[in-house]
C-alpha cells in the first residue's frame, strides 16, 4: 500500500508540490470557466436551469389562450392546419 500521505510531513510535501504545479495555471481559471460554461449551457435542460440558476422556463409560442373582446365572453375556437414539412401551421377560426 502506498503510504505517501501517511505522515504530516509527506502530506505537506505533496500539497506543496501540487500548489507549485497548479499555481502557473491560476490566471486561466476564469477564462477556462467561461469556456466550459459556454460549451455546457446548451446541454443543460430547461428544468435544471430553472432549479439551479432560477432561469424561467421558456414558453412555447401559441400556447396562451386568446380572449375575444373586452367582455370576456369566452375563447375563440381555432384549428391548426398542417402544411408541408418545414412550414408553419396556419390557424383557421371556426
Task: Explain the overall architecture.
It is a single chain. The chain is mainly α. The protein has a domain at about 10-55. It has 3 helices and 2 strands; from the N terminus they run αααββ. The chain has a two-stranded antiparallel ribbon with strand order 1-2. The protein starts with 7 loop residues before the first helix and ends with a strand. This is Aste57867_13862 protein.
Overview in brief:
With about 90 residues, the chain is mainly α. The chain has helices at about 10-20, 30-40, 45-55; strands spanning about 80, 90-94.
Key descriptive features of the protein:
single chain; 94 residues; mainly alpha; 2 strands; rod-shaped; Aste57867_13862 protein
**Spans of 5+ residues with little confidence (pLDDT < 50)?**
none
- State the strand order across the main sheet: 1-2
Distance between the termini: 79 Å
**Total strand count, please?**
2
Order of helices and strands: HHHEE
Helical fraction: 25-40%
Overall 3D form? rod-shaped
Report the total helices.
3
Estimated radius of gyration: 29 Å
- The proportion of residues in beta strands is 5-15%
Main β-sheet: number of strands, strand sense, barrel status?
Answer: 2 strands, antiparallel
Structural class: mainly alpha
What number is the mean pLDDT? 81
Organism: Aphanomyces stellatus
Protein name: Aste57867_13862 protein
Amino acid at each position: 500500500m502506498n503510504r505517501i500521505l501517511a505522515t504530516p510531513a509527506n502530506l505537506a510535501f505533496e500539497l506543496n508540490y501540487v500548489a507549485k504545479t497548479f499555481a502557473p495555471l491560476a490566471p486561466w481559471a476564469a477564462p477556462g470557466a467561461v469556456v466550459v460554461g459556454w460549451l455546457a449551457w446548451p446541454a443543460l435542460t430547461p428544468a435544471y436551469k430553472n432549479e439551479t440558476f432560477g432561469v424561467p422556463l421558456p414558453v412555447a409560442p401559441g400556447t396562451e389562450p386568446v380572449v375575444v373582446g373586452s367582455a370576456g365572453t369566452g375563447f375563440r375556437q381555432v384549428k391548426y392546419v398542417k402544411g408541408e414539412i418545414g412550414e408553419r401551421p396556419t390557424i383557421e377560426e371556426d
